[in-house]
């Protein structure tokens, strides 16, 4: 087993500076290294193929040039795992297409139901002010940019209380019905097969009586889970709603939804935001999906990610040890790509299933 203990794996990471500073922390580097995983910085100014070989490439960069480099790297190092496929990631850059995955899920749950809020996409000002175009929605509504590429602009949202607030919106946007949910949003982090749910303060409920007394037409905010830091929101509200005592959604239910999304989207690193419909205690609505979220906010993220890296490289390879040498037999790339779906039931017996 001495040879096995000396076997190390290299995971290259290509991230934007802000993402790198928040994700690649010393605590993660040290823990991963102690388990045989070396996290290697990928220099985006140099050709990716010249920075191999690597057992895995972890990335959150976009653009045609980067996609081309990933393709070249895959051809040069066919046994390397790329997490995740650029094509699969791009599907989450549109707030309409991202939630279509939810609508297509078929999950049996004895007590809980799930879905998405009513929403429409508005491409121009003319449609925005055409009441017949979105008569299925009623105020208040949440206005979100159609593009969800992780930029600061894509996080700028507005809670619109009446028609006067529409004047401040700039299409293309998605108008999503606001559903009272007790001022709590559940953020479900997915790392491969690992699923962890945390609760965050959210937009407070709005009664029909209070809607008519709102002094402003629109309330701007960056993210739903950050709304509690807005000075316009009274902190007493969350005490009144017993935020700390809010019951979490059933873990089995969340795991089933996460697994269904992971398979459908062919992605391994994402989170989704869930609210509990205040009108129905067992009805949950998925309002957003994000690729490669801020995992450092997740408790014990270092351990979770280290385990994930080990799963990536160990399930990709079957290590066979003898007295004299270590032989590595490539079994299969088990992680999602455009051509390969993680956990497919029609795999051959020699491949690895989740």
TrEMBL record:
Keywords: ATP-binding, Kinase, Magnesium, Metal-binding, Nucleotide-binding, Transferase. GO terms for biological process: inositol trisphosphate metabolic process. It holds the Pfam family Ins134_P3_kin. Mg(2+) 2 binds at residues 288, 290. Mg(2+) 1 binds at residues 273, 288. Gene3D superfamilies: ATP-grasp fold, B domain. Its cofactor is Mg(2+). It catalyses: 1D-myo-inositol 3,4,5,6-tetrakisphosphate + ATP = 1D-myo-inositol 1,3,4,5,6-pentakisphosphate + ADP + H(+). Binds 2 magnesium ions per subunit. Residues 106-321 form the ATP-grasp domain. Kinase that can phosphorylate various inositol polyphosphate such as Ins(3,4,5,6)P4 or Ins(1,3,4)P3. Monomer. Belongs to the ITPK1 family. This is Inositol-tetrakisphosphate 1-kinase. It comes from Juglans regia.
């Amino acid at each position: 087993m001495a040879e096995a203990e000396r076997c190390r794996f290299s995971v290259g990471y290509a991230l934007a500076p802000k993402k790198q500073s928040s994700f690649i922390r010393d605590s993660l580097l040290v823990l991963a290294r102690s388990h045989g995983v070396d996290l290697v910085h990928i220099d985006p100014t140099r050709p990716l193929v010249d920075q191999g070989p690597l057992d895995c490439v972890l990335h959150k960069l976009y653009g045609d040039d980067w996609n081309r480099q990933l393709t070249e790297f895959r051809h040069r190092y066919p046994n390397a795992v790329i997490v995740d496929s650029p094509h699969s990631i791009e599907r989450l850059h549109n707030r309409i297409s991202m939630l279509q995955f939810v609508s297509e899920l078929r999950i049996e749950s004895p007590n809980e139901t799930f879905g998405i809020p009513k929403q429409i996409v508005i491409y121009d000002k003319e449609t925005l002010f055409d009441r017949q175009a979105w008569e299925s929605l009623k105020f208040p509504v949440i206005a979100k940019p159609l593009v969800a590429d992780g930029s600061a602009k894509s996080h700028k949202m507005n809670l619109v209380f009446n028609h006067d607030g529409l004047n401040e919106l700039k299409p293309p946007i998605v108008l999503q019905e606001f559903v009272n949910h007790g001022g709590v949003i559940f953020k479900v982090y997915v790392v491969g097969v690992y699923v962890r749910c945390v609760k965050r303060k959210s937009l407070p409920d709005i009664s029909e009586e209070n809607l008519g007394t709102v002094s402003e037409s629109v309330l701007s905010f960056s993210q739903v889970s950050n709304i509690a830091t807005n000075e316009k929101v009274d902190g007493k509200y969350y005490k009144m709603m017993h935020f700390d005592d809010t019951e979490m959604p059933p873990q089995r239910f969340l795991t089933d939804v996460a697994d269904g999304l992971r398979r459908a989207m062919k992605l391994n690193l994402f989170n989704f935001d869930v609210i509990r419909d205040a009108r129905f205690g067992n009805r949950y609505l998925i309002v957003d999906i994000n690729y490669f979220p801020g995992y450092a906010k997740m408790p014990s993220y270092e351990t979770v990610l280290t385990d994930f890296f080990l799963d990536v490289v160990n399930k990709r390879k079957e290590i066979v040890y003898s007295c004299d040498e270590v032989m590595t037999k490539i079994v299969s790339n088990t992680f999602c790509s455009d051509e390969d779906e993680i956990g497919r039931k029609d795999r051959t017996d020699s491949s690895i299933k989740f």
